[in-house]
Amino acid sequence: MTILLNKINEVKNNIKQWKREGLKIGLVPTMGALHKGHESLIKKAKEHCDKVVVSVFVNPIQFGPNEDYDKYPRTIEKDLDVCEKNGVDIVFSPSPSEMYGENNRLSNTDLTFVCPAYNIVDCMCGKSRPGHFDGVATVVLKLFNIVNPDFAFFGQKDAQQLFILKKMVKDLNLDLTIIQCPIVREDDGLALSSRNTYLNTEERKNALTINKALKQIEKIYSTGVKDTKVLFDSAIAVLDKNLELEYLEFRSFDTFEPVEEIQQNTLVAIAAKSGKTRLIDNIIIR
Ligand code: PAF
Predict the structure, then answer these.
(1) 129: CA distance to ligand 1 center in Å?
(2) pTM (predicted TM-score)
(3) pLDDT band of 96, cuts 50, 70, 90
(4) Does 38 participate in catalysis according to the annotation?
(5) What is d(CA 260, CA 228) in angstroms, rounded to the nearest whole number?
């Protein structure tokens, strides 16, 4: 049976007991509105671990002032059903004040923040979302400290987040392993995201060309083209003109440096707006 806990101490008490029993603990951090992508993370966690904790917390400190914090979908009852169905042991769903105290200003004037390596933050999503990854790294470190997991599960869809968090674990000598899980897509290729619910029919149709553009890059690359400028142009030709492209970048997924020629382990990542909805997607060319 899944239990819902809102208090940090209640979670810690359960964890202490499990640790005493020598059980392996998995954490799946989420902001709720769980979809099949999250379910795949939970399933992976169940395979690796004896006990699974899912956190459901719409983290205010990772949203910019003009972003969708207030309108972000909150569906805790449905989320609990998904967790129950998948055998999750604890859903941890704290309030903002449980996580950050009664601070009015949730900024680094009042709170201790984690600042991930600047070179990895000052590009791609970090460029248009200043402070976003500080907020992500801070909440994830707090969740790691609360849940003390052996394994934590993150999707490849948020590739920059994944890279930053893996580096945080390494740089701060955290005693856990991050497991990278593949992107889950709708049958028509759209990467699953809680924000897909914002899209109307037309916007959703246009958004499909994001994945088509990535597939086009794979196709042209498979003919022997490695020059990222050529690959960039081939993808732009496929993207629907109504999308507002924010970036299409080619980076080493070992160093996060931009690459001019595709090499082993190259991340190809796109962010674009369809209507008002900002979407991201990527592939990793092995
Ligand atoms: O990927 C997300 O849903 C969030 O950024 C995370 C990792 C749960 C932190 O709030």
Answers:
(1) 14
(2) 0.97
(3) very high
(4) yes
(5) 5
Q: Which residue has the tokens 């899980």?
A: 181
How far, in Å, from the CA of 188 to the mean position of ligand 1?
25
Residue with tokens 């994944």: 162
Q: Which two three-digit tokens encode residue 173?
A: 């000598």
In the predicted model, is pLDDT for residue 211 greater than 90?
Answer: yes
Residue positions counted in the chain: 286
Nearest to 90 by CA among 200, 15, 140, 170: 15
Q: State pLDDT tens for residues 8-37.
A: 999 999 999 999 999 999 999 999 999 999
Residues 232/266, Cβ–Cβ less than 8 Å: no
Q: Three-class SS of residue 271?
A: strand
According to DSSP, the residues that pair with 270 across neighbouring strands are 248, 281
* Dist CA 257 CA 78 (whole Å): 40
How far is it, in rounded angstroms, from Cα 61 to Cα 45? Answer: 26
Question: Minimal CA–CA distance to 90: which of 49, 40, 56, 54?
Answer: 54
User: Where does residue 274 rank: exposed (0-12), middle (13-18), buried (19+ CB within 10 A)?
Assistant: buried
Q: Above 90 in pLDDT, residue 106?
A: no
From ligand 1's centre to the CA of 183, what distance in Å?
15
Residue 72 DSSP one-character state? S
pLDDT digits (tens, 9 = 90+) for 44-63: 999 999 999 999 999 999 99
Q: How far, in whole angstroms, is CA 285 from its chain's centroid?
A: 19
Asked if 5 and 14 count as a contact pair (C-beta separation under 8 A), the reply is: yes
What angle, rounded to 10 degrees, do the helices at 132-147 and 159-171 form?
A: 60
E-strand stretches of the chain: 3-5, 25-30, 51-56, 90-92, 151-155, 177-181, 244-252, 266-274, 277-285
106 lines ligand 1 (CB under 6 A): no
